[in-house]
Structure formats: C-alpha cells, structure tokens
Structures
1.
Amino acid sequence: MELGVCYYPEHWPAEWWVEDARRMRELGIRWVRIAEFAWSLMEPEPGRYDWAWLDKAIDTLHRSGLKIVLCTPTATPPKWLVDADPTILAVDEQGRSRGFGSRRHYDFSSPAYRRHATRITRAIAERYGEHPGVAAWQTDNEYGCHLTVLSYSENARRAFRPWLARRYGTIDALNRAWGNVFWSMVYRSFDEVDLPMGAVTETNPSHRLDFRRFASDEVAAFNREQVSILRLHSPGRPVAHNFMGFFTEFDHRTLSRDLDIAAWDSYPLGFTQNFFLTPDEKQKWARSGHPDIPSFHHDLYRGMCRDGRWWVMEQQPGPVNWAQWNPAPHDGMVRLWTWQAFAHGAEVVSYFRWRQAPFAQEQMHAGLNRPDRSLDQGGIEAGMVGDELQQLAASAALAGPLKLRPSVALVFDYDAVWMSQIQPQGADYNPVELAFRVYSALRSRGLDVDIVGPDAPLDGYRLIVMPTQPHVAPKLAAALQSSHAQLVFGPRCGSKTETLTIPANLAPGPLAALAGVRVRRVSSLPPGCRETVTMPGADPGNAQITRWFEDLDLAGAEVEGATSDGRPAIARNGRARYVAGWLDNAGWRAVLTRAARDAGLQPHVLPDGIRVSRAGDVAFTFNFSDQTVAWQPSPDAHPLVGGASLPPRGVAIWKVAPST
Ligand code: GAL
C-alpha cells in the first residue's frame, strides 16, 4: 500500500523539481505520475522531439527515490497536428468538428490519429522504456472524458460498416436483428448503413446500441495499440489506465483485459454534486462526499483486471473546479478517503495534484500544495497517512494490498447500461443510479460487495444481486441457475434480447423459470406518482415505488411485497426474488436484508454515516458523519489505528479473527 501524486514538472521552474521531490518523499509519497498532457513539449514541431526537459525531470525524480508512472500523451494532440490534418478531430452528433483549445479532441476512429498516437507512444517508450526510474505506465488519460467516445465522423462511418458486417455476416441478418421492416428502414448492403444521426426523430434503438458497442470497441482497440508498444519496449512494467467515476460510455472490462492495473480517479465531492443524488443528499454530503461513492468504484475496479490489481490514480485533495459547486472537504476527509481505498484493496492512492496551478483551466483546483508552494490541508493529511502506513508496515500489522473476499456479488454491465439509456421509457430511469442505490443499501447493512461483470464466475457467492440487466445472455442465465446463492433481480432484468428487442416469452425472458413471474405490462411513473409497498422487514407502508412499475403474472412465485391495492411488487420463487419497480432506499434495504439473512449472512444496521469493511483479519471503520459514534467490528477486535469511539471523519483499523 503506497501513496503517489500527479506532478507536472513542465508547469514549474526546473530549479523547483529537486525540492518538490524531496518534499514528496518526506510526506511518504513513493509514486509520481507525469507527462500525460505534454505532447507539445515532447514534439514541439512535426518530427522534432525535445527530450531534454523530460530526461532531466525523470532523472531528478528517480534520484530522489520516487517511482515514476510515465504516461503516453495522446489525450492532447498538439495544434500543429490538428492544423496539419483536421480529420483527426472527433465530430459531434450535429456534425461539428470538436475544436482545439482544451483536450480529448481526437477521433478514436481516425486512421491518421492512430498512426500519430502509435508514433509518439513508440518514441516515448523507446526512450524511457528501460529507464530504471520508470516503474509503470499509464495509457492516455481518462478515455472518454468530456463525452468523447462517440464520434459521428466520416472515419467512424467507414469503420462502422465492416464492424457490422463482421457481426451480422449478411445484411439480411442485420435487417432482421434490428427490425428494419419497421418504417421501411431495410438496407440492401452494409455500405448503405450510416451512423445514427441527423434523422427526423428517434433512430432505431438497435442501430444506436450497435453504434455504442462499435465505439466502445474503438476505444479498446486504440488502447491495445498503445499497450502493445509499451510491452515491447518496456517489458516487466505494469500498464494502467485511469478510468472515471460513474462513467459508462465504453466497456471498461473489455479494455481492462489489456491492462495490468485498473486505476480510477476519485473525486468524491465533485461526484456528489454532479450526479443523481437528491438535493438533500447533496447538502448532507457536500463536504464528506456520499460514503458509498468512492467504494462503489473501488469495488467495481477491483473486478476489472485478471488478478484484481487496482489503484486510485487521482484522489481529490481539496476543492475541485469542475462540479456545479465545489466545496472544501471537511478536515480529515482526504485521510479518510485514502484509507477507504486501501480498505477496499487499492495498491496505490495517488493524489491529483502536487501543487495547484495558478494558470489556465484548473487554476481553481486545489493540490496538496498551494500555488505559493506552502502545504495545503490535503498535503497535511497525505502526510498523516504516510506516517500511519510506515508505522503499520514497521509493526508488520499491514503487509501489502488487502485481499477482500465478499460473499455478495452485484452484477454491473456496460452493455446493460447502454440498453437502458437508449430506451429509458421514463425520463428519470437511470440504470447507473439503480446499481448505486442497491450497492449503497448493501453497504449500509455492513455487507462487503464485489461488483462483477455478466461473464464473471459466480460460484462461491452467497448472495447475487442484479439490479438492471435487460439482456441476460445464456451463459449468465446458466451461471445464475447453477449457483446456490440467493438471487435478487431488479426491474427490467431479462426484458430484452441481445439486439434490443422484446423476447418471445416476454420479460424476464431467460429468467422466467428462476423468477417464477412474467411481466404483463410496464409503466413509468411521472414525478409525484407512487405506489406504497408493504413487505416484511420494512415498516408497513414505509417502502415506496416511484419512477417504474411492472404488472406481474405469478408463475410459481409468491408475493413478498404488495402495493396497497394488492398487486405484487416483490415476488419470491425459492431462492430468487424479483423486484417489480423502482424501490426507494428503505425498500431496497428491506429486500436485501431479507435475502442476505436467507443467504446465511449477518446484515446489521450501521449508524448513519458509518461504513465498515473487512479483508481477512483486518477490519476498518469509517465515520462520514458529523457526530462521534461508538462502533467496534467485534468484541475481541484489537485496534491498530483509532478505536471504538470514532470522531467525525474518523478512521479506525482493527485486527480481528480471520474471516472464514
Ligand atoms: C480528471 C483529469 C485530470 C484533471 C482532474 C481535475 O478528470 O484526469 O487531468 O482534469 O480531473 O479534477
């Protein structure tokens, strides 16, 4: 478990670098990530490379004992390249080229850009691949940031057609799969298929789904090209990419197959303000962040790479600049978030950024240090974690990244998110929020969770929750069938085929026998419309369904929760439960508590703002609230850091009896 920091030597006088590196070491920082936006300095003119500054920066950081994560600079193609070949630019849905002047303006489908990207990657890999200071790589930076996965360019159109031909074989098969007989959309050849844009009204949902799948594959292919160059010239160094929170525009699992480390960028306060939380939640968690936002992603990214290696590549150090509102974290939160990441198995937590830049777009974004080089609150707290890590390592109480073995799996699938987004059928039907709400309900009951893909092996889990999976592939259906776990299916599971059409046996399609229900009719509920659900485990009438409701025919299942007029809302068929609507938080907690107990787990009600997690014989308690709370994982737990009385923003680490 180590700390890192994102550093931009090119932003500061070279005379500062030695001192900066010394102070990083002093805080306990071991890793430094550099160069992801520095293309125009590496290659100031076409074909003329200038490595002198980077040689010096890498040598300085290395000599100070820091391990370097070197980045490929492909997120920011320089102006001369854009001017020389504007076809490298991505195109928006209205057909306008994305302009120069910020970042991520390139088109993943541009063959010319792919050539330039591999050229600069090869140049940097050849120069530094064997440098003893370079200990890991990062490809590009935050693929897709600023909504840049979909490009409606001529390049994309040209690449989409053969992609479709490979998928469907014949144009008749595509016409059938998409239902093109509708509105006379039949094509005679793949060469007639355009991108889903510019039509009078909604384009065919199957067409849009395949375009999103294609665009996702383009991102993965782009990344794969860079990775193979890095592996060739820098053998033995792990390759990472830094993914983003609540970002689902491409399939992170496909891309992660080519990585050694899945990293993500954690901005808990920015995400709390910018995503789907209610106004009350945004206010309540403004300065600590919603407790489950960081861990949702920790548990997601832990499941990405083959051997579960994952990092936080960027950790919020203070106020950011890009959310609707940018509050300062409460004192203690930077330390808490860092430990929370380690508790969920992170190898490295790296802060963004070393020093606040006094210029350009992110000048209002805090760093560990202020622009005048004085240490800011985030830096003070990074130093605290640095000290704690050292003490715990010295006493051998914590050795190496923690290995978690949750009994609960939550299935989360990118393709499923796209399907739900393409035809939401209700303006507030948000599949990512649904997954998060279900996850949060599990965490509020003290349960550790693995977030897994639809292809993951499911043996060994005692509770499997699938909040939103419109298409259930035969392999997933078989894995659910043969598992011995308790199962909880959310609304709309099994409601679509692979090409986004309605299954012949209606929803829940391949889950019909397991769930013992058939969906007869669905309704989205406008704001203010609600169904009150009575079910065991919740106060009668306490759980509400809003946004979405399904009328079920029972085919073997019994009713475990019903609306006030007696319609089934939660159906139970042996070890499977089917939830027929958008349940509120209390409702999900009730259903999941019940399922967890049936699975032999011990869910318990945590005090508001308290979160716990466990890995082998180490347990953590975190207090996100404003109150001092007494909480101890077990009577015989022995404190390593903190204790049973947790102050606001407090962290406690415990030795406990090994979990079985
Ligand atoms: C990330 C990005 C960084 C920086 C940061 C600001 O999304 O990777 O380059 O922009 O946000 O919070």
2.
Amino acid sequence: MEKSGIEMLHFDVMDGVFVNNITYGLPILEQVRKTTDLILDVHLMITDPLRYVRRFAECGADYISFHIESESDTAETIRAIREAGAKTALAIKPATPAETVFEYLDQLDMVLVMTVEPGFGGQSFIPETVEKVRIIREKISSMGLDIRVEVDGGINDITSECVINAGADTLVSGSYLFKAENMAEAAGKIRREEI
Ligand code: ZN
C-alpha cells in the first residue's frame, strides 16, 4: 500500500453484534501501527463505540469513525474521540438519511457514507447512496467547513467517478485494490487520474 501511493489504511472493526461479522480489534491495530506510517483510519462497526474510542486512539488510530446507528450517544462519543486526540468521523449506513449528520458537522473531521451495508467485503455499490454524498458535501460547503467525505463499499474504477463528482474526497477500496495486479495503477484509476 505504501509503495502504491495509498494515503490511508482503512481498518474495519466488527464486533459480531452491530454487524454479523467479527474481524479484529485493539492488539492487531497496535501491531499494524508499528509497521507503517500510513494514516490509520479506524472504522468501528461496534455496538458501543464510546466504551472503546480512547483505547483505539491509544493503539494508534489517526481517524476514528463510529456509526450514528450505534447505541452510544453521538455527541458524547465525538467528544471522547477528540479528547483522545484522534480525528473524528461519523458513519451512516445506506438507509440512514444524510440530514442526520448535519447537527454534528461542525465537530467532525470526516463523514463516512457507507455505499454498501456494513458487515462484509466484496459487495456491490448501492447507487442511491451517491445523492447522500452530494447532500452532505453541499451542506459542508454552505457551512464553510473543511471536512472529508469518505465512501466505503464497492468502490472501484467505475463507481469512483460518480462519488468523486458528488463530492467524496476519501475513497475506501478493498477487493478492487487487493485483487489488482498493480495496486498503484488501480489506485490511480480509482482517483480517475490519467495514466
Ligand atoms: Zn469500513
């Protein structure tokens, strides 16, 4: 990833409760932190993120995303992430309206719009989510804020075009990059760079 010019390592944490899958957690993040200087973008798909954000920050997370649909209080969790010294991101599932994040925008560094249902890799992009990216980007611009809009799920050289046009500037890609023969070239195609 470093050699391919990738900016961030997106680290999906799943607890088997918030989503039907279990991945990895704190000890793995701590080890990953020791091996790379890439920005670590930790996406918490867990039921009670408030309980864990400080520890994820201590283990090296640069960004911490948590879901507005989780059971933790949103404002309190944002505060806890900031206090722990990490950048703060709020994530929404495909069925959650874009407007739900508006009241928190001035406290965020990033909004994560899920472009598939969270839980598993390798899923197909949901086209209806593009409009949410546009609505959130327009709101951010109208408020004069400087916040990343990240998309996660089914991002490849085809789907990246519409989300970039809608205002996404941070694109997460798993299967497409890791199945590519040349990751640097694949990343360039996602960014719609001329190669
Ligand atoms: Zn993710």
